[in-house]
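Notebook entry, structure prediction.
Reason for the run: the old model in the group folder had no record of what sequence produced it. Starting over properly, with the input documented here first.
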Amino acid sequence: MTKEALVAAAAAKAGLPKKQVAAALGALLDSIAESLAAGEQVKLPGFGTFEIRQRAARKARDFRGGVIEIPPGRRIVFRPFAGLRRAV
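New structure, fully documented this time:
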């Protein structure tokens, strides 16, 4: 589902204009991104949790047979709530 399709579906269910729903969705996604960038966890009851996890430095194999060093980093993790897992 694309963002445009999501906006259309939400507008139909809520009975609101697509323009309002698109603005609200954009604001929601921006707020989630800002919270994650600040290192905060984002919980959406009934949907799931977004959080940042630290990833340690590690060594990996190069396709030519060598060993390369992968630096530490941060990654976004999504954990769906039980209701969403059952629905899917």
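Summary: The chain is about 45% helix and 30% strand.
The old model has been moved to the deprecated folder.
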